[in-house]
Amino acid sequence: MHELSMADGILKAVLENAEKNEANEVIEVTIQIGKMALINPEQIKFMLDILSEDTIANKAKFLIEEIPVEINCSKCGFEGKADIDETDHYNPIVECPECGNMPVAIINGKDCTVKNIVIEKDDE
Ligand SMILES: [Zn+2]
User: Fold this and answer.
1) Mean pLDDT confidence for 3-13
2) Interior CA angle at 81 toward 71 and 38, to 5°?
3) What's the 104 CA to ligand 1 centre distance in angstroms?
4) What spacing in Å lies between the alpha carbon of 15 and ligand 1's midpoint?
5) Domains in the chain and their CATH numbers?
6) How far apart (Å, rounded) are the C-alpha atoms in residues 60 and 56?
7) What is the CA radius of gyration of the chain?
8) pLDDT given at position 102
9) How far apart are the first and last CA of the chain?
10) pLDDT digits over 20-57, tens only?
């Protein structure tokens, strides 16, 4: 399942970062998901909650930010936010808002990244 391996990867990155910073608890994690990453944010959240159960992130709040899709149209040269038809979440249709050209080159919105991690450390 796509979301499961993605959630697993996100959690690993979070825990690695937390360990490096000697955290004893992860408070909050902000994750950016591109609309073209073909990921269901609700499922990611759900899986992160389950996967983090036995880790220092077990009480962490997972916040998801969706990133709009940006394209570069080879036909009219338009660059920016694209129109996206998400009727089928796993097969969204992207087209140029200026000339309706498709398919277009997607320059942003395909990735899933950890944007911010809030941790708590022992008082020194
Ligand atoms: Zn165009």
Assistant:
1) 94
2) 70
3) 8
4) 42
5) 1-68+110-124 (3.30.2320.50), 69-108 (no CATH)
6) 8
7) 17
8) 86
9) 42
10) 999 999 999 999 999 888 888 999 999 999 999 999 99
